Amino acid sequence: MKFSKNTLRSVKIRHIFGLQQTWSYDRYQGSGYCYGILPALKEAAGDDREQLGKLMKSNMSFFNTSAIFSPLITGVHMALLENDSDEMGQSIKTSMMGPLAGVGDTLAGVIFNPLVTLLSCQFGLGGNWFMALMLTLAIRVAWLIVQSRFFDLGYHKGVEAISSAASHPFLTQGIHFMSVFGAVILGGFIPKQLGNIQIGLEYVGKVSIDDSVERVFRVQEMFDGIMPYMVPLILLALVYFMIKKFKLSALQMLLLIFALAVICYYTNLFVLV
Description:
Layout: H1 5-18, H2 30-45, H3 49-58, H4 70-82, H5 86-125, H6 129-157, H7 159-166, H8 169-194, E1 197-199, E2 202-206, E3 214-218, H9 219-226, H10 230-246, H11 250-267, E4 270-272
Antiparallel strand pairs: 1-4, 2-3
């Protein structure tokens, strides 16, 4: 049996756009996966409604992987389903969703998406909303192209496509390079993003021999004399220390920062300039 081009196109589109639309705690992406490949299951079962029910039930099982790499698994599954090897397809899903999730989540969720979002925010804060919008759309379109190519690769190359894609030097070395590059870019934006936070404390001191001249000394100027942007660096190090030392979650850390901001607002400890 060979799936028609319309069926494969439908499966590709439904999988890319529908995989993560029906999350559940017991199956995660399982129902979305079944929704994506439903046209192929209908064509494989033909008029046998009982067989269609069995195929749908088996493909509603737990599934959780990177949305970027998931079409690779789906493409391989389609190739196996054409040869009446749905059970092997289930084995491929189970064995490969973990490794591909690690690679895909690192590429998309840790490196590219945060980096592009940060650049978009910079353009937006600078008043260039058009570039901010274009960057946001560009990364989304780029991922759609990658997902489409992965589906085709999985379908035409079969199981070999998964092993070759996961171990390709471009992918493994590219992840390391982009991790370092992303860290450098994010680090460079820290002074710009947090540089407006300054110490608001000040005091009046005598600057003449006879104490006749008074001057207002700002604590912030003292820190700037030691090292520019020292206050944002200390705040960032403090947040990192709190997360590592006390195992605080992101929500807990945000609530703590919010409480600190309220205290600083009323005590003038830190101010925005």
